[in-house]
Write a structure and sequence with these properties.
By secondary structure, the chain is of the alpha/beta class. 36% of the residues lie in helices and 20% in strands. The longest helix is centred in the first third of the chain and has 25 residues.
């Protein structure tokens, strides 16, 4: 028996995490000699959590690894694409399309959906926080609230969504960067007081790590910030407020007081970081009063999943679909200036943008061809840059 309740790479790859009804479906299709019938399947969502106007697609790299070696074709939007559930006319927009013998990929629907539903939810929430924070620093602190097996995915999705860094060792490896963090309250308690802990950090931890003092353990945040300036002097790079909810009161006022006292003593260069219970609303409010960095955790790592679903829309070259879905192989065309999508049958010619009349580009691009990867997978930092560029053209809420 494994030590932890987590599926291995091998188990996921052989569809050992699928739902039983797909196993039974495969058995029936094979018995009836129907498993070789070719189909086209769309992956769409009917809407986004909390009425969000857009989402950020994540998990495509893992989809590539899942389907590699399976004799099917896969088309998908690029990882990091900002997508809307519907095109300009209200038709559901596929973010991915699978073509091939249904028996070849029948068992993979469950893991395939799981790989993009949760990661896209996390990336979307992270992008919303980034949009609210402007150019302020964002660090992913949320892995402690979730199963540790998920930490690389969670931190990677947060980074792709626009965060600047991550706290976990495994997440940092996933984004090809160094982990970022300050100190816990436990260090201060173990050393007996704040000053001993701050000085020990300064003495022992490598010099390239910024000296950010946690300033809310025993005393008022303003008082501890002043003590930190006296204890560390020019070595002090920042202070972090992780004040518990029962002590916050008017948190914006606390931040303003700390900023005043630091500036008054010649520590204008010392940055104020805040963590604990943050989301896009609180980040936006605290950015306005001088907070320069945020450690955001649970609201991102526990982001609502995006309910993607897979539906067969073509069988043996003929359109078919269940109620509520539209049949046929399709392509999504997007105006990159307006971010307006046009859904069309796959063989129809390229349309113009219905809003500005400009050129559109196809969004469902070849990912897998007969089981072989056909595209170079981008690095996390490049996906993040792609997301940040798109964020300039979207709003947090629907107009």
């Amino acid at each position: 028996m494994p030590l932890f309740h987590a599926a291995s790479d091998e188990e996921i790859k052989r569809a050992g995490t699928t739902d039983i009804y797909f196993v039974r479906t495969e058995e029936i299709l094979k018995a009836k000699k129907l498993d070789k019938i070719s189909v086209v399947a769309d992956i769409t969502t009917s809407g986004l959590p909390n009425n969000w106007p857009w989402g950020v697609l994540s998990g495509i790299e893992e989809e590539t690894k899942l389907f590699e070696g399976i004799p099917i074709d896969v088309y998908a939007m690029s990882e990091g694409t900002i997508f809307m559930p519907e095109d300009f006319r209200g038709f559901r927009v596929p973010v991915m399309m699978i073509e091939g013998a249904y028996g070849a990929f029948c068992l993979y629907e469950t893991p395939m959906l799981g790989l993009i539903c949760q990661a896209s939810g996390v990336a979307t929430k992270a992008a919303r926080v980034r949009k609210a924070a402007g150019d302020k620093a964002l660090l992913s602190f949320g892995i402690r609230r979730m199963h540790p097996a998920l930490s690389p995915m969670l931190d990677r999705a947060a980074y792709i969504g626009g965060f600047d860094g991550v706290s976990s060792l495994s997440g940092a490896r996933a984004i090809e960067a160094d982990p970022i963090g300050t100190m816990p309250h436990a260090l201060i308690i173990m050393l007996g007081d704040q000053v001993k802990a701050w000085k020990a950090f300064d003495q022992i931890i490598e010099k390239n790590v910024p000296r950010v003092a946690l300033v809310d353990t025993y005393f008022d945040e303003k008082i501890e910030s002043i003590i930190a300036t006296e204890a560390l002097g020019k070595h002090l790079a920042g202070v972090r407020l992780d004040t518990p909810g029962s002590r916050r009161g008017d948190f914006a006022e606390i931040v303003k007081e700390v900023r005043w006292e630091l500036d008054l003593r010649g520590f204008k260069h010392v940055k104020i970081y805040v963590s604990g219970g943050l989301n896009e609303e609180t980040v936006k409010a605290l950015s306005a009063v001088g907070v320069e960095g945020f450690g955001v955790g649970t609201s991102v790592s526990n982001a609502p999943t995006i309910d993607f679903a897979m539906d067969i829309v073509e069988k043996q070259g003929k359109p078919c679909s269940k109620r509520g879905k539209i049949g046929g192989k399709k392509q999504v065309w997007r105006c990159q200036k307006c971010l307006v999508d046009v859904l069309q049958p796959y063989k129809q010619r390229q349309p113009s943008c219905p809003k500005c009349g400009g050129k559109t580009v196809p969004m469902l691009l070849p990912l897998i061809k007969n089981g072989k990867i056909t595209t170079k997978l981008p690095r996390p930092k490049d996906i993040r840059s792609y997301v940040l560029g798109q964020l300039e053209n979207v709003q947090l809420e629907k107009c």
